[in-house]
UniProtKB/TrEMBL annotation:
This is Methyltransferase-like protein 27. SUPFAM superfamilies: S-adenosyl-L-methionine-dependent methyltransferases. The keyword Transmembrane does not apply. Pfam families: Methyltransf_11. Gene3D superfamilies: Vaccinia Virus protein VP39. It comes from Holothuria leucospilota (Black long sea cucumber). Transmembrane segments: none annotated. The keyword Methyltransferase applies. Keywords: Methyltransferase, Transferase. InterPro entries: Methyltransf_11, SAM-dependent_MTases_sf. Residues 83-177 form the Methyltransferase type domain. GO terms for biological process: methylation. GO terms for molecular function: S-adenosylmethionine-dependent methyltransferase activity.
Amino acid sequence: MADEMNATKSPVAKQATSVVRYHEFLKNYTDDAGTLTAEQKCAKLYDNWTTYEQDVANASYNGASLSTAMLSELCPDKNISILDCGAGSGLVGEKLRAEGFTNLTGNDISQTLLDIAEKKNIYKKLVCCDGGNVAKLPFEENEFDALICTGCVSPTAIRPKAFVDWTRVVKPGGVFLLLARHRYWQTDLTNKWPKLGFIDEFDTVIQDLENSKKVEMIFKRVVPDYVEGTEGLAFAFRVL
């Protein structure tokens, strides 16, 4: 634990600048039994990741561009209200703004990253809160026309249970789009993530939402060259 705590001073210092290896560190840290909750540990890690944007760029991260292109495909109206869930430093917001979307709200678990995003002047409102592992997000019912979540749905960050409240804050007829690493949904024996119950939780939540007529899937799409040359997996849902 001592080594892990030291590493939080520069989260990628001992892991080179690879987002993949940093994510391994995040998993180990959030799994550790301590006085902080997993969400508090996650916030602490990102608050101390001072080279975040440079490290993401070095990892050939294309998630922001890819998810923005898909949301533009789903939502041609540029005036819609969008929640960027897990906005971080505003990488997705920058791409959305470049596509002509201006009614943007962002939330993230890290105030440090949100401070970076605020300086970019691309969001109407930024809220520091857990991205969805809470019973209720601090937003009104039917507040948004769309929600986009890029790179945050994972076994150690925003879990699929968050989708339930996403259907509350997105208007009927609106959409939510998520894009993450494809490997989180792969069940080969070398993949440790299924052991955390991510796939089962995802399937259960989606099935419950579909069976209760709260959402319908628009598409499930494998996306090449998501980050560090690896595939991403995107899901789009319409709120009913």
